[in-house]
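User: I'm new to structure prediction. If I give you an amino acid sequence, what do you actually give back? Let's try with this one:
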Amino acid sequence: MLSIENIKVSYGKAMAIDGVSLKVEEGELVTLLGSNGAGKSTLLKTISGILKPHTGTIRFDDQDLHTMPPHQIVRLGIIQVPEGREVFPELSVLENLKMGAFTRKDSGVGKDLDFVFELFPRLKERRRQWAGTLSGGEAQMLAIARGILSAPKLFMLDEPSLGLAPVIRNDIFKVIRQIHQERGITILLVEQNAKLALGMSSRGYILENGKVGLEGKGADLINNEYVKKAYLGY
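Assistant: Good question. You get back a string of structure tokens that encode the predicted 3D arrangement of the chain. For your 234 residues, that looks like this:
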């Protein structure tokens, strides 16, 4: 489905991604780990077309992404939920959700809206509330739900549990697992909670200084001694 080969991305003279290659197969949940500044968010932005690689290729279903503008990439079904719970604060919850379906012309929007309200009952309760008045956890729910309304083929989530209370964090992970298992949505997950993320992942990659330092099955990485010390805290 997604194939990245030897891409390099920089901010001015600073190299952020230095020869990264990875793959995400259809139906997988793949986790991307790494410390702050390792290049994780940069990689997602590059896949989305917000940033352009200097070298290398990005292909999705046999189409070259690295030459496409972001809006065309979205139309292919590549949807990113960025770090920071970005919502439209002066629109209602329902209006935010409808914005997620902006590019859709199929008849399934109503069913998907019912689906996200089942996933997130709080959003249904607050559907007429301004998004800017939501709590941090509710805003993250809205950002994920809006992404689902875009009918993703590849769903990229950037630090969905960042800054959330443990109870809300666990709810978010349950939802990620549910949409992957019930809907079969392919997911590329950037997440700081390595244990939870790897525990439900098909495979994982670890970025270090803009390069892939380690890759493998989720279960294997959890039991890797280096990963235990560097990312799991034991």
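You can read the tokens as a compact description of the fold. Here is one thing that stands out. The chain has ten helices and ten strands.
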